Amino acid sequence: QEQLVESGGGLALPGESLRLSCQASGFTFSRHAMSWVRQAPGKGLEWVSGLYSDGSDQFYRDSVKGRFTISRDNTKNTVYLQMHNLKPEDTAVYYCHLLGTLTWGQGTQVTVSS
């Protein structure tokens, strides 16, 4: 059974950093592209970032380029989202997603506020 478990969210001041982690299990992690998606309060899902199975290419939405970095460790079945220079508009529940499937994590809350 495919499973994704996010962690690392929390409360941050504007300009601070957080690192999200997503632990995968139940499938061959190294064969699959992964992404991060977020949902701000009262808004729809918004794709944030993604990368290929081997991590060779990373993709970002414009609003996070230069601030967020996606990476993965296939030996640990984990994908990360390093977030720097956080802004209040980054406040959302962040979900890990196994691309091409309906497999999502439970989400981790990120709140950026002074």
How are the SSEs placed, and which strands pair?
Elements: E1 3-7, E2 10-12, E3 18-25, E4 34-39, E5 45-51, E6 58-60, E7 68-73, E8 78-83, E9 92-98, E10 108-112
Parallel strand pairs: 2-10
Antiparallel strand pairs: 1-3, 3-8, 4-5, 4-9, 5-6, 7-8, 9-10
Q: Could you give the order of strands across the largest sheet?
A: 2-10-9-4-5-6
Low-confidence parts lasting 5 or more residues at pLDDT below 50? none
Distance between the termini: 40 Å
What is the helix tally? 0
Q: How big a fraction of the residues is strand?
A: over 45%
What's the main sheet like?
6 strands, mixed
Radius of gyration: 13 Å
Overall, the morphology is: globular
Brief summary of the model shown:
It contains no helices and ten strands. The chain has strands at 3-7, 10-12, 18-25, 34-39, 45-51, 58-60, 68-73, 78-83, 92-98, 108-112.
Description:
- With 114 residues, the chain is an all-beta fold.
- Helix content is 0%, strand content 49%.
- The protein has strands spanning 3-7, 10-12, 18-25, 34-39, 45-51, 58-60, 68-73, 78-83, 92-98, 108-112.
- A 6-stranded mixed beta sheet has the order 2-10-9-4-5-6, with no helix packed on it. A 4-stranded antiparallel beta sheet has the order 1-3-8-7, with no helix packed on it.
- The chain is globular.
- The termini are far apart.
- The mean pLDDT is 97.
